[in-house]
Hints:
The protein has 272 residues and is of the alpha+beta class.
Amino acid sequence: MDIAKITTQITELAIGYAPKVLMAIITLIIGFWIVKKLVKFFEKSMKKSNTDISLTKFLSSILGAILKVMVLLSVAGMFGVDTTSFIAILGGLMIGVGMALNGTLGQVASGIMLMIFKPIKVGDLVDIGGGNIGTVESINAFNTELATLDNKRIYVSNSNVTGNTITNISGQGTVGVELTFGIAYSGDIDKARKIILEVGKACPFILDDPAQGVVVGNLGDSSVDLNTRPFCKSEHYWDVKFYMTEHVKKEFDKAGVDFPYPTMDINMVSQN
């Protein structure tokens, strides 16, 4: 084996392809940068035309994917690949992959359904499937992105969104915050009701209409449960929940209204 000859061939091959590889890298970097700028320009244009932001983000994600594929095809052409044949082969391959991964195509179809029927939109506070709670950040080609209160990101596949129960907490613009406060059986219901209403009146986020009410919702094993549902603007849902929970506890403590503790009566039977 002629090592020197092989080394020479490898060196010549590297020198011959080095400019193409360099140009390919530059093309990829510049091409993806241009794609990013074009997608941003597209988003701005859609926003100026007052297009729904959910639809804007959805179309932007698809446009970005298409443009990136075009950049990759351009790079392939720089290496002498017949892009026409390549596209035909790629098309056939995509059909085969699509048949094998029809669930992935179903994600796109589900995304389109979300755009058409609009059960949720960007900015809505939602509960998907009874556990995925967050604000909708974007509806993409394959998934829906939620931002949680603690700044986490939940990515739910579009088919899971459309296939699950969707609770749009903020879809109406205003929302009622369900709260339950338990007091001991020895406690004064009217006194506790007055405190809850006074705290609600002091809360800067609670609306006057509809008026807040307090009712006895349940007689539990160790507590009398008082239910209230103050209304607020959707974006203040968590503000109201946390404000009421903290300040009702503080006011109950000041007024001597006891929170219940589980109790058990034990009857002793003596046997002679």
